């Protein structure tokens, strides 16, 4: 007998109380072990249009809904008695006549009343400032007037729903989409955004259809059912979008990359890719890496969900930040620990070297940036090499004389570091790169990199050197629209060419349609990297609707604080727990403003430097810290003119190219912070606000 798990089962299971979940799981295990055992009580759902729906008794109140056909049993839903029956009475499972995917179709006539109401009623708390008025109430035109029934069928709209879709307007569509199979909702949303309709490719075997596989999973045995049900809150662990699955399962002929705007599931793809490699190749030793230790820890936790605690898999994967893994490999090969100079130490050395060399007229910010992005990143070791370095932006400003003067400073810094036997992160990467570049024996068979947009030159060289020379050794996940730490450079120039093997995800699982649309306004529609690879950000869709973000440009700090505090109090009254709230600012100088807001709202909070992550505190911190995180609500405050973009960075630019680069990364920073929000977003400043806020309003 085959057991199939439907995503509707995992979602409904997740909504039950803990002890109810336990009982429902036990019944599900019994069902899988032997559906004919006498203890199980089945009842056909007589009122359902689909004769194959049955209920199975869990206890006096709870029922599992299964769908029985031939030799297979599908776990479809679980709920309290009446609600479980209602669910099954309104559903039919069928193979779509055009796409061939198996769908759970909501029976049309029973949901008439529901479909006409918006799925979420936007509720704005009373706020002490004005919010944008509702759009004029003129009837909106139908969105899909140009599409024929055949068009609608080609993207998986069930026959029952053709008429509703044809009449849908911008206002009613989201409510309607929640009743449609996901692939139909997404294709129509993409059409609404871009005017392009992408019909699904028909597949012979309905069970093998990518859209079937995104909601139903055929389970191999009890272990698999156990693993899938142990993580019912983590739907991503079991059900992948067809695009995600495609990227995970493909064989590549060289380094590959998954791209996509914030929240499209790139990390999820990276994690599944790791598991796939481990499952298919019993000799694989995988490195899963990213740019910081906290992010690596988060990856480790998620990977444990996927592996279901299987030591034979987890034991063959190392999860660590770029830096940590370089330190470990250095320790292993050199037999000693690398002592690394922190940023402050290097800053001090640069200042002293400039004084000693009598070189003046360059700002400290410029010097450290030139050191980090040029001298140290490219490991420049002579005045000649300095003249040749392939750098972005600074080239025009620095004449030969200036470069000679600067080299006097930087060569002293290099010498001082050498005398103290100190590494910089870049020189550590370089040391390990040199060790492994010529070795045939590599520490890992595969390397999977998350947040790859923030790889710098030394890190990429390092990963290239420790990766074996096999076609699918390197896999990157990243979004160049979220690059906030590194200057752009050519990957191809360093021998890592992902052209032709780069795939873009389009479905945003994290942020509401409203937040995604607003955040997208911060970035260009297409972004091109140094190698000419274009990232087309159009056509992304979010899978749920939320509340319009709030943007406040206040008269003074007190007014901003009052507005933000009122917003937070309304959240707390709505039952949003503090740990689902974050307040971000541009830099440490604005942290006191964020703290004042939290205090005015009586919101318990933690900052990076004070307190530990706990269940009941909000996070207050700088935007750079936001990377990789996710909250129900995000506030980005103190976005004033001069703060965003940061005036000091702008003042230091060498030329137009560098100005563009600074403005782009400052925009990207705001994009990263804003897209951490799932359903509510608040952005504020004191007059005059950041030019970026103007773009958003
Ligand atoms: N197939 C899926 N089903 C359900 N949820 C998913 C799926 N894929 C991703 N998600 C959820 O969407 C959210 C964003 O996923 P993820 O962090 O992988 O996105 P990302 O593209 O790496 O985002 P960012 O670039 O902002 O870091 C997460 O909460 C994740 O669990």
Brief digest:
With 697 residues, the chain is of the alpha/beta class. The protein has 5 domains: 2-99 and 207-227, RelE-like (YaeB-like fold); 102-199, no CATH class; 240-335 and 428-523, Rossmann fold, CATH 3.40.50; 343-422; 547-696, Rossmann fold (3-Layer(aba) Sandwich), CATH 3.40.50. The protein is 40% helix and 16% strand.
Characterization of the model:
GO terms for molecular function: 3'-5' DNA helicase activity; ATP binding; ATP hydrolysis activity; DNA binding. One of its GO terms (biological process) is recombinational repair. It comes from Mesorhizobium temperatum. It catalyses: ATP + H2O = ADP + phosphate + H(+); Couples ATP hydrolysis with the unwinding of duplex DNA by translocating in the 3'-5' direction. Keywords: ATP-binding, Helicase, Hydrolase, Isomerase, Nucleotide-binding. A hairpin with an 8-residue loop joins strand 2 and strand 3. This protein has 27 helices and 24 strands. About 4% of the residues have low confidence. By secondary structure, it is an alpha/beta fold. The protein has 5 domains: 119 residues, RelE-like (YaeB-like fold); 98 residues, no CATH class; 192 residues, Rossmann fold; 80 residues; 150 residues, 3-Layer(aba) Sandwich (Rossmann fold), CATH 3.40.50.300. The relative contact order is 0.09. The chain is globular, with a radius of gyration of 28 Å. It has a 6-stranded mixed beta sheet. The site of adenosine-5'-triphosphate has 21 residues, from helix 12.
């Amino acid at each position: 007998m085959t057991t199939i798990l439907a995503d509707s089962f995992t979602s409904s299971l997740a909504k039950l109380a803990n002890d109810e979940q336990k009982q429902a799981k036990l019944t599900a295990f019994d069902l899988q072990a032997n559906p004919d055992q006498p203890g199980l009580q089945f009842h056909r759902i007589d009122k359902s249009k689909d004769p194959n729906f049955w209920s199975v008794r869990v206890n006096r109140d709870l029922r599992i809904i299964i769908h029985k056909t031939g030799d297979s049993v599908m776990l479809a839903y679980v709920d309290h008695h009446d609600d479980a029956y209602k669910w099954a009475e309104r559903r039919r499972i069928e193979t779509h006549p055009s796409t061939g995917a198996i769908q759970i179709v909501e029976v049309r006539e029973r949901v008439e009343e529901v479909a006409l109401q918006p799925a979420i009623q936007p509720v704005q708390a009373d706020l002490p400032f004005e919010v944008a008025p509702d759009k004029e109430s003129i009837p909106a035109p139908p969105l899909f007037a140009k599409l024929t029934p055949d068009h609608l069928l080609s993207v998986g709209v069930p026959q029952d729903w053709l008429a509703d879709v044809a009449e849908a307007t911008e206002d009613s569509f989201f409510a309607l989409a929640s009743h449609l199979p996901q692939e139909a909702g997404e294709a129509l949303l993409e059409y609404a955004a871009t005017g392009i309709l992408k019909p699904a490719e028909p597949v012979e075997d309905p069970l093998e259809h990518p859209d079937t596989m995104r909601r139903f999973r055929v389970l191999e045995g009890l272990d698999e059912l156990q693993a899938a049900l142990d993580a019912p809150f983590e739907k991503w662990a079991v059900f992948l979008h067809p695009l995600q699955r495609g990227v995970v399962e493909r064989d590549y002929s060289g380094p590959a990359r998954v791209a996509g705007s914030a929240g499209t599931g790139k990390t999820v793809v990276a994690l599944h890719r790791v598991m796939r490699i481990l499952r298919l190749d019993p000799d694989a030793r995988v490195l899963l890496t990213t740019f910081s230790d906290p992010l690596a820890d988060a990856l480790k936790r998620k990977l444990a969900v996927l592996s279901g605690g299987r030591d034979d898999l987890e034991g063959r994967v190392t999860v660590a930040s770029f830096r940590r893994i370089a330190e470990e490999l250095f320790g292993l090969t050199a037999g000693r620990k690398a002592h690394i100079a922190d940023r402050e130490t290097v800053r001090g050395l640069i200042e002293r070297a400039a004084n000693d060399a009598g070189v003046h007229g360059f700002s400290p910010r410029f010097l450290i940036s030139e050191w980090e992005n040029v001298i140290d990143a490219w490991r420049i070791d002579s005045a000649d090499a300095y003249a040749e370095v392939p750098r972005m932006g600074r080239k025009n400003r620095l004449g030969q004389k200036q470069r000679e003067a600067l080299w006097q400073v930087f060569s002293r810094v290099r010498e001082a570091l050498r005398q103290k036997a100190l590494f910089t992160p870049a020189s550590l990467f370089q040391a390990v790169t040199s060790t492994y570049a010529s070795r045939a024996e590599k520490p890992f068979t595969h390397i999977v990199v998350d947040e790859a947009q923030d790889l710098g030159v030394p890190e990429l060289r390092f990963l290239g050197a420790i990766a074996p020379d096999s076609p699918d050794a390197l896999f990157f996940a990243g979004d160049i629209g979220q690059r906030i730490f590194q200057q752009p450079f050519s990957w191809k120039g360093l021998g890592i060419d992902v052209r032709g093997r780069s795939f873009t995800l389009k479905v945003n699982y994290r942020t509401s349609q409203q937040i995604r649309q607003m955040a997208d306004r911060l970035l260009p529609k297409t972004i091109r990297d140094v190698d000419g690879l274009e990232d087309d950000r159009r056509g992304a869709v979010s899978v749920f609707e939320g509340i319009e973000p709030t943007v406040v440009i206040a008269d003074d700090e007190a007014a901003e604080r009052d507005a933000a505090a009122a917003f937070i109090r309304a959240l707390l009254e709505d039952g949003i727990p503090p740990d689902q709230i974050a307040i971000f600012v541009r830099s440490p100088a604005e942290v006191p403003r964020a703290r004042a807001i939290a205090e005015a709202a009586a919101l318990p909070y933690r900052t990076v430097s004070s307190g530990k992550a706990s269940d009941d505190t909000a996070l207050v911190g700088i935007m750079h810290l936001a990377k990789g995180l996710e909250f129900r609500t995000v506030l980005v405050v103190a976005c004033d003119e001069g703060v965003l973009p940061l005036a000091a960075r702008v003042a230091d630019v060498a030329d137009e190219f560098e100005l563009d680069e600074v403005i782009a990364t400052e925009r990207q920073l705001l994009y990263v912070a804003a897209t951490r929000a799932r359903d509510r977003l608040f952005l504020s400043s004191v007059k005059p606000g950041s030019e970026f806020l103007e773009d958003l309003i």
